[in-house]
Prior knowledge:
Elements (H helix, E strand, L loop, with lengths): L12 E8 L2 H12 L2 E2 L10 E5 L2 E8 L8 E7 L3 H10 L3 E8 L5 E6 L5 E6 L18 E8 L2 H12 L2 E4 L7 E4 L12 E5 L11 E7 L3 H10 L3 E9 L2 E7 L5 E6 L6
Parallel strand pairs: 1-4, 5-8, 9-12, 13-16
Antiparallel strand pairs: 1-5, 2-3, 3-4, 6-7, 7-8, 9-13, 10-11, 11-12, 14-15, 15-16
Amino acid sequence: xxxAAAPYPEGAPCWADVAxxxxxxxxxxxxxxxxxxxxxxxxxxxxxTEAYLDGAxxxxxxxxxxxxxxxxxxxxxxxxxxxxxxxxVTAAGGQLIAGPARVGGLGRALTAADPGGSVFGVRQPxxxxxxxxFERTGEPGSYCWVENHTRExxxxxxxxxxxxxxxxxxxxxxxxxxxxxPRGSEPGAHTAVAGREVLGGxxxxxxxxHYLLYFRVFDAxxxxxxxxxxxxxxxxxxxxxxxxxxxxxxxxxxxxxxVLSHPRGVN
Length: 267
């Protein structure tokens, strides 16, 4: 699975943040679980706090302005023109939830829902590569992958093809799992920046459509044990998959995410 370098091509995941009721508790959880340190909260933006791994930006924690908002991880896809992307979202049958709006020195962003109901963000960087988003991906303690879990695969596939020009392909290791590559690239696992999965099987019938973010870790089993100790939960016990050993966890406030380590015996 490819990780894009900044500046990111259109449609590539470029940033992630988590909306929490208690960001201080979130710092304690993710600081120990993933080895993150944290910058100073941006008080003018509700205490938005960037997370770092060895000095490189890897994510952010946001305070929920309204307790009714979901406690959840959010993924943002890159675009060079947020206004044009917003028009494509609505024209293709999506819904704008918030924005487009400027977000401090981080550029402009919007939040939207696709026709299947999965919520995602789109982000146009600020004036320098330093504003483009992730400064490290694919390494232990950082973002490595994202999947859209949906019950409307045909409508969702058509939507993202219209919005981002994704070139789809089927995963040779996971039948039924679709890989999405940026516009103009050769479809396949070596260029894929996201995946699309049909909800079912391992997931309960009442689970809503969503994006599931993965963070790379050294050892999925050990990380799951640490999450439990820190007050989180293990939603899906560690198991072997086509790309390594993985598990689905929730943090100590209920935000859901996955962790992925290399297959056992592979460094």
